[in-house]
């Protein structure tokens, strides 16, 4: 008498159904990744910008010299120099061309004086996609803050 062995495993149809379900779930999550990438790039730029401004202020106070930050309209770049706009370059930072820096009340250049204060107060808007941040520079010890709009 022959005994039939039962084979264990998945059929081709079952595997195709599982792969289809996985593909549908992946397709639903891809649009959310774009928003996540946009948010992370903006957050990274804001953190980097804050660090650069604190560096400029610290450099001005420790070296007892003015530090100038120039924002360029035509290209996604800002530059930090010592003493004058054409002075020694301390930092040259480029950023994504999708990100826009718009001076609202703060005009370029921003100057940190040797005592750490800014020469004038003002506001800058940083926009990337649907996200907008307001960076406000206050008079007095070069304080500034970042606010998400």
Automatic annotation (TrEMBL):
It is found in: Cell surface. It comes from the Bacteria. The chain crosses the membrane at residues 12-30. InterPro entries: ComGD (IPR016785), N_methyl_site (IPR012902), Pilin-like (IPR045584). One of its GO terms (cellular component) is cell surface. The keyword Transmembrane applies. One of its GO terms (biological process) is establishment of competence for transformation. Keywords: Competence, Membrane, Transmembrane, Transmembrane helix. This is Competence protein ComGD.
